[in-house]
Amino acid sequence: MAVEKMSIAKALNESLRLALDNDPKVLIMGEDVGKLGGVFRITDGLQKDFGEDRVIDTPLAESGIVGTAIGLALRGYRPIVEIQFDGFVFPAYDQIVTQLAKMHARALGKIKLPVVVRIPYGGGIGAVEHHSESPEALFAHVAGLKVVSPSNASDAYWMMQQAVQSDDPIIFFEPKRRYWDKGEVDTESIPGPLHRAVTVREGSDLTLVAYGPMVKVCLEAAAAAQEEGKSIEVLDLRSMSPIDFDAIQTSAEKTGRVVVVHEAPVFYGSGAEIAARITERCFYHLEAPVLRVGGYHVPYPPARLEDEYLPGLDRVLDAVDRSLAF
Amino acid sequence: MTVESTAAARKPRRASKRTSAAKKPQSSDPQLVQLLTPEGERVEHPDYSIDLSADELRGLYRDMVLTRRFDAEATALQRQGELGLWASLLGQEAAQIGSGRALRDDDYVFPTYREHGVAWCRGVDPTNLLGMFRGVNHGGWDPSTNNFHLYTIVIGSQTLHATGYAMGVAKDGADSAVIAYFGDGASSQGDVAESFTFSAVYNAPVVFFCQNNQWAISEPTERQTRVPLYQRAQGYGFPGVRVDGNDVLACLAVTRSALERARRGEGPTLVEAFTYRMGAHTTSDDPTKYRADDERAAWEAKDPILRLRTYLEKSGHADEAFFTELEAESETLGKRVREAVRAMPDPEPMALFEHGYADGSSLVDEERAQFAAYQASFADSAEEGK
After folding, report:
1. CB neighbours of B330 closer than 8 A, spacing ≥ 6?
2. In chain A, at which end, N or C, are there fewer CB atoms within 10 A of the end residue's CB?
3. How far does Cα A17 stand from its chain's mean position?
4. Are strands A116-121 and A78-82 parallel, antiparallel or unpaired?
5. Around Cβ A188, how many Cβ atoms within 10 Å?
6. A100 at interface of B, judged by CB pairs closer than 8 A
7. ipTM
8. What are the chain A neighbours of B154 within 8 Å (beta carbons)?
9. Tell me, what's the pLDDT at B27?
């Protein structure tokens, strides 16, 4: 066992380093990823060690970053591109949705597009507009893309390895407000598959389903509920496309109550999909309707209001109470 | 209508009046590289000399004739309801065959959806191009077989793929080159601008081959640009050249030169092939609604095939037997294409769930199983009905 305690940021950095080391075809591309090491320092020191040909500072053009990564992938490379912030992925959205997602199918499977698009996402860091959004549902809705988000250092380390090795395009959402959270990473023991959900806390009264930045909030909510004698299970989805519905079903049938929590707006969000599937799969096991906690149908608010917008401990516990009251 | 909107509506009319009064490049235009005049006369250009054998000249002619025949057959098949749509290349044969024959086998092509002549030069079976227009797939061929990428419908996207691929070629230390095709309409797209930026700063071995066919559906080139398109390259730091797009020899010479420049590690070139789309944008539109008859007539006089035929005849490089044989070959091709399209089967229903993902997806697996059960339920009821 080689267990180290490290932050999510450090785990991602170590994982990217390993990916570059393991395969000469792996490239890192993006704005400021080289000398600066990325605005969050996720690529810190990589250009110094692997050179400008492997860790490539690009022009400020998101469509260009993804579009050229597609060309490089067609040539046999495995690009990992960084979109600096969530709200800036939209200039590249066309390339991701109309090209990256579809090309494998259009070639009847004869070509592969192993591209990882890293996007630091979500709020909670007091940023200006376009720096705090959670657009995961927009990508999960698109066939041909896979969408994942780690919630802890170990997953950050291993899910990045698995994403780079995947022959499918992966949208890798990094919960930016958790970058500095530390956790144990076993760098030798390979965990389960990339798209498998994980029960991060066992419980019997209700299931909280979350991913990325909200997993920590849900764990805190479960701990608080425990003090009131409620036994809450917490499921970390890890993957928003595909979703491990079997794991959700198992937990829903065990507890009979589910609350889905995410930062993105509730309306048309991933919680809607999860709630609908739970209803289809285990209607007769449910003691209460599936409830959702998330952002409102408003533009992401200015920083001084984001605590009202983002689901916190109290809003999660409120939903837990409402569910248990049925 | 507000005062502001009236003024805004008036403005473009004034602008188009100015541009239509401006001199359009003629065959004698020094900015336009030309080696074969519309009258079929060989002329020289100081930077782009070319010396082709009679055999090679006949080969180019054959390519253009067969490509036009294939295109005409596809248009007819669309009219007969065998294809849902067709994007004709009529009038652009020289631009495509000239540039396509300049390529080496190890070069890589990123086309739009109209590069049937380039596909022909790459050895792609023309019937492969028809699947997407018939609606049985969205491309379907393996791009690596002929180094000819899938057709790209979204305007200009492929110029970035070409640039990225070319960056990869340079990383590999290979001396092959990449060519990206796009039109005058695509030149307005951000992706094309970004591909110019990326290719310039990374010195990528890519040739941007813009077929300016004067019309982006119903929008004239004047609606895309206020400067000649080839001059855009200068702002990005690489050369741009305008070639007579109806002159197969000039297109070959200019593209060859640009590809060689890329192979030498000197970076990208923008080639603007000044040509004309004689047909509709696709079979869905009606060019009589947006352009004048005399415009087409003027361009018909510059027909790329006619001028090479005149030259071949005058120079004695081809005799009557050659043209007769080629006519027969054209008919055979037309028949083969017609039969192949009619024999093209619809995909099996379960093909819906194939190839979405390289590594599979549990979501697709679930939906495939549901669909299979649904399909099977019809089989059961058919059994019961017996």
Report:
1. B65, B66, B69
2. N
3. 20
4. parallel
5. 8
6. no
7. 0.95
8. 94, 98-99
9. 46
